[in-house]
Amino acid sequence: MAYKNLVIVESPAKAKTIEKYLGRNYKVVASLGHIRDLPKSRMGIDFENEYQPDYITIRGKGPLIKDLKKYAKKAEKVYLAADPDREGEAIAWHLSHILNLDKDDKNRVVFNEITKDAVKNAFKEPRSLNEDLIDSQQARRVLDRIVGYKISPILWKKVKKGLSAGRVQSVALKIICDREEEIKNFKPEEYWSIDGNFKKDRKKFKASFHGVDGKKVNLKTNEDVQEVIKKMDKDKDWTVESVVRKERKRNPSLPFTTSSLQQEAARKLNFRTRKTMMIAQQLYEGISLGRGGAVGLITYMRTDSTRISNTAKEEASQLIHETYGAEYAASQPRKGKKSGSAQDAHEAIRPTSALRKPEDIQQYLTKDQYKLYNLIWTRFIASQMTPAVYDTMRIDLEQNGVRFRANGSKVKFQGFQKVYIEGRDDGKEEKENLLPDMEKGDKVTRVDLEPNQHFTQPPARYSEATLIRTLEENGVGRPSTYAPTLDTIQRRYYVTLKNKRFEPTELGDIVNNLIKEFFPNIVDVNFTAEMEKDLDAVEEGKKEWISVIDSFYQSFKKDVENAEENIKEIEIKDEPAGFDCEVCGNPMVIKIGRYGKFYACSNFPECRNSKAIVKEIGVTCPTCKEGQVVERKSKKKRIFYGCSRYPDCDFTSWDKPVGRDCPKCEHFLVEKRKKGSTQVVCSNCDYQEAAQS
Fold first, then answer.
1. Environment class of residue 402 by beta-carbon count within 10 Å: exposed (0-12), middle (13-18) or buried (19+)?
2. Rounded to two decimals, what is the model's pTM?
3. pLDDT, tens only, 480-506
4. Which domains does the chain have, with CATH numbers?
5. Among the options 21, 55, 300, 420, which is catalytic?
6. Known catalytic residue at 300
């Protein structure tokens, strides 16, 4: 087919969507990401020539480049339409170099959403390549290469092969290790509370001890509690000392940025960070909606801005007026705050059309695509709605100088909460607490008291969501770095996820301590955040990328020399496994490999016997009645249960067997967890037992 214009994008899905919009005069092809990069086998940076990178063609991309050159030769004009960020600009720059395009030619096309109007408008205003964006990405790539390729060989030599260090990953590891140290050193402190159940005109409500003689009192021991209880007369009424009624407004959350989307998808959908970004990419690049063809459903998903275009606001307002009523549409939607690090180059993540309701297109989406699109759509619509309004009531009760306080609230107007309520890290939902109508001077009766002993809790380990939020709050990394950073520290076995929380491994502790001691700047949060600001300054044309690299490297070089000379070799001793090798009879030991701990023969390399470490759950296999049920992990790290005699016995179950048979059909019973409670159910029929929290 004849064409006048060649358009190059990164992915085939994006190419297919865009080609449909542009028509027959355009041929749209995919570069499949980067076509050039630094070599894997060596540093690839010329330190004697202003840190110039030595880019080479990525292995396997030769035939693709040959095709791109062939297509470009036939075209009158070549357009570079990679993603609208630093990485996309770098891809376009490398393509321009490979195809010998004029660097000053206006052939760079950017759009924040893949819709017909957005794409066509973008092609009306192509621009030349942005050298500041390219320099910023190049500086980041060179910086990360220097850190990784200078520190990693030291770790291989002094600790073990296969380890790595990175500018952002090392900070993330340190944050996790620091939290583990806090937990280890935490000393719980005792404190008490007193809840009272009260009654007003047969209506019961709860209030909590607040203080004595007008002063707030903290109860540290049971003796303190008893002193307070002695002051109270159980047969005497309590007096309502004060009633404070207020109206409280709650504003809607701002539309999603990359990190807030990753956090909310983890909280509400139980999505891992990598999964969230993969599905968001699919929604951005285009989904086929029946006869309407493929269309991009969301705007670009790598952004730290909460800005929304006027067109999108108007469309959302129209939908809110028509669907929910004028009283729900905000006349002045809440404006987003721009953080010091936000580039604001793109909009927030939003649906490309507010009128494209999730339920209307659900049939065209996979289950996970629908979940994520629905999350993005509802968050965006809610952000353009009025605040929720609560009536609040605070009541102070007194008797003999002892004061109890009750707080109540009820929703007066749902506002944005008619559409969306933001998730919480603790997984709990805020509930209404209705109090009886009372006035100052009213009398109420105490029903009973509930003294409770508590102990302060250590800080919680980081989940993927809370770690991303911490990195973002500290200015470490950028939207595109969070998913690969979390993936890397797990692949290197520096941390493990237990109950969806990060715990450092022994190996992670060793690596973290070495980097802390010999490369303090690399794991210094403030230093890393300042480096990110320098890279942003390069993007804005305020700093030269070579000077940024040189400023870092001059001190880093001394740290490398010191580490090479003074780090002593660390031997990670093998733990005795407690049993002998069934092949040669020598003791088995526990070793640390790339994917975690495993059993191996101590007579290695003469004997190469090894096997995975499995965790028995104390249940006999319900299929063969001989083996033990053990905990295993799938390729996607999901836990399942199988027989220790595999492959002789092929029993598997996603749910944990409990070691009992169903009284109804005699199949094995399993545990199912739902919303914080555990229920025992039959693996075959509808039998179930009462849930336990």
1. buried
2. 0.82
3. 889 999 999 998 889 998 888 999 998
4. 5-129 (3.40.50.140), 153-186+465-566 (1.10.460.10), 190-251+388-455 (2.70.20.10), 258-383 (1.10.290.10), 655-693 (no CATH)
5. 300
6. yes
